[in-house]
Amino acid sequence: MTTPTATLDAGLPDGRLLIAGDWRSGTGAELESINPFDGSLNRTFAGASPDDVDEAVTRGREAMDEPAWRDLLPHERARYLHRVADHIEDRVDRIAAIQTADTGKTLTETAALARSAAGTFRYFAAVLEVAEDTLTPRRGDFLTMSVHEPLGVIAAITPWNSPIASDAQKVAPALAAGNAVVLKPASWAPLVALELAAIVDAAGLPAGLFSVLPGSGRETGEAIIEHPLVRRISFTGGTTTGRHIADVAARRLIPTSLELGGKSPTVVFADADVDQAIAGVLFGIFSSQGQSCIAGSRLFVETSMHDEFVERLAAATDDLVLGDPTVPGVQLGPLVHFDHRLDVERYIAAGVDEGGRVVSGGARPTGPPFDAGAFLSPTILTGVDNASAVCQEEIFGPVLVTLPFDDEDDLVAQANDSVYGLAAGIWTADYRRAWRVARRIDAGTVWINTYKQFSISTPFGGTKDSGWGREKGVAGIRQYQHQKSLYWGMDPSPHAWAAPHRGDGDGPSRPEGTREGRTS
Ligand code: NAD
User: Fold this and answer.
1) Which atom of ligand 1 is nearest to the CA of 248?
2) pLDDT digits (tens, 9 = 90+) for 40-50
3) Active-site residues: which are they?
4) 133 in the Ramachandran plot: left (φ > 0), alpha (ψ -120 to 50) or beta?
5) Residue 11: its pLDDT value, please?
6) What DSSP string describes 59-116?
7) Residue 221 CA: which ligand 1 atom is closest?
8) N or C: fewer beta carbons within 10 Å in the chain?
9) What is the percentage of the chain residues whose pLDDT exceeds 90?
10) Summary mean pLDDT of the chain
């Protein structure tokens, strides 16, 4: 193993990239990381160019073929993952501060994301101890085995909204499976991925096995997904980008997993515990400033209680605390970027144009510290049609639409009238109804009397335009491996087919499953 080439120092990452085992400036286009709390500049630095990508991927392939990584036993490889987790846990505060500066998320949230990333590395270290190759049933004088092998260089491409957690969800299983990884973070939030690079490097993994290549999708991302040595693309991001990545992967005949957008329904039945439902709906849509793929952004409330529930929800929304994301008790910081706020505001205006009524928020908060940052008040729109853009398109911001429903059939029809199928939430006291509705809603995850809770041991992913493939869970490691079948001959005699002349025609007939019998 190599010795670390980067020290875990204090402050924001200095903007050098980890490319092919070296820490150096990228040779691609300039990137700017802005703190959306006050618009100040965190860092400008050069991203990875196509040449940098080529170097990183080529070196990654060599590094994974070296005995130092290739021949490690599973528990030895697990040790490296535990070491990465140790470093993350030692540096939770620093990672949280970097991510908050980059994204405007509250420190409480970014610290939780850092801890969850450490948990992900530990989980896949544990998976290595139990992921078995199998001996398949015998069908003749041979033994058959199915073993799992790494694929090659994995491209991990991630969005800006939960960087270290979504990075770890790809990097940990891909490394555990024996691959090399190139990670491309989003341009708006590149810094925490550079911190992860320093951590992986300090954990002593072979030089070049892991590279971090920030840059734009058009320059850096394209160079990665088109690189002939990249053997799998693990993508999390928007549906439009995901569709393009699926096109490229289909042409190149390489596997992908696509964790894409959502427009998740949250359903409140009249028998729900209203206080619990209100708290759950608020958390489901407005935590992370609504910038969450699984945000419960369409609220369906049983008609008999819709108006009363929405009135209480609006009052609770008005009471949410916006402010400096580094201050304890603040529930919403700014949006990730000033440009993103403009996009979200356009949706609110479109919702009003389509007949919607704003019952909470709808505008930027004013006065210090809000004037300097990318703040937007959490917003509830009611009176909109389920066919309208605000009900059908992913806004990815703090905007909730509310819709009444009459009965289960009406609810399921409206909830499933969406191109997306990522998540859903159900609030009811009737577990039989929860069971029925949960099974009928198109979603990869359904929360019942809870929302936005996660477990690394539970598979996660979407259906319909929310993507394909599943991350997490014991099987999460398998998407980074291919299966190889081994046949071990146990019959010591020469193959009868090759010596047909030797017998007199009265030789013993061979049963099915022997070397000349049927074997399938
Ligand atoms: P995005 O699709 O714009 O970008 C995602 C990543 O893809 C970025 O790193 C970007 O640079 C890269 N990229 C863009 N074009 C590329 C190209 N041509 N080739 C290669 N890479 C390219 O998404 P975003 O705005 O960063 O993130 C928000 C989206 O992510 C939302 O739609 C959200 O729902 C989705 N998301 C999904 C999940 C999930 O698990 N389903 C989780 C988080 C976010």
Assistant:
1) 19
2) 999 999 999 99
3) 170, 259, 293, 471
4) beta
5) 80
6) HHHHHHHSHHHHT--HHHHHHHHHHHHHHHHHTHHHHHHHHHHHH---HHHHHHHHHH
7) 20
8) C
9) 93
10) 94
Q: Is the pTM above the cut of 0.85? A: yes
Question: Mean pLDDT throughout 400-424?
Answer: 98
* Cβ partners under 8 Å of residue 202, min gap 6: 4, 6, 7, 8, 87
Q: What angle do CA 379, 337, 293 make, to 5 degrees?
A: 60
Pocket of ligand 1 (CB under 6 A): 157-161, 166, 184-187, 217-218, 221-222, 225, 236-238, 241, 244, 259-262, 293, 394, 396, 422, 462, 467
3-state secondary structure of 451: coil
Q: How far is it, in rounded angstroms, from Cα 178 to Cα 231? A: 13
Report CA(42)–ligand 1 centroid distance (Å).
22
pLDDT for position 499: 80
* Closest ligand 1 atom, residue 241 Cα: 2
| 65 Cα to the center of ligand 1, angstroms | 30
pLDDT tens digits for 368-400?
999 999 999 999 999 999 999 999 999 999 999
Q: Max Cα separation, the chain?
A: 102
Atom nearest to 185 CA in ligand 1: 9
Residue 414 three-state SS: helix
> 40, 210 in Cβ contact below 8 A?
no
Tell me how far apart the alpha carbons of residues 18 and 208 are, in angstroms, rounded to a whole number: 8
Using CA atoms, how far apart are residues 363 and 341, in angstroms rounded to an integer?
Answer: 11
- Which whole number is the average pLDDT over 263-269? 98
Pocket test for ligand 1, best of 184, 191, 236, 452 (most atoms within 8 A of CB): 236
pLDDT tens readout for residues 451-473: 999 999 999 999 999 999 999 99
Q: For position 79, what pLDDT does the model report?
A: 97
The CA distance from 506 to 423, in Å, is: 67
Mutational test site, ligand 1, from 251, 293, 392, max ligand atoms within 8 Å of CB: 293
What domains lie within the chain, and their CATH numbers? Answer: 5-260+471-482 (3.40.605.10), 265-455 (3.40.309.10)
The pLDDT of residue 2 is 34
First to last CA, the chain: 44
Q: Beta strand pairing status for 467-468 and 256-259?
A: antiparallel
In the DSSP assignment, the letter for residue 293 is T
Could you tell me what percentage of the chain is helix, strand and coil, using 3-state DSSP and rounding each to the nearest 5?
Answer: 40, 20, 40
How far is residue 67's CA from residue 8's CA, in Å, rounded to a whole number?
27
> Which residues on adjacent β-strands are paired with residue 88?
none
How many A from CA of 120 to the centre of ligand 1? 21
**Cα 408 to averaged position of ligand 1 atoms, centre (Å):** 34
504 pLDDT band (50/70/90 cuts)?
A: low
Residue whose CA lies nearest to ligand 1 atom number 12: 217
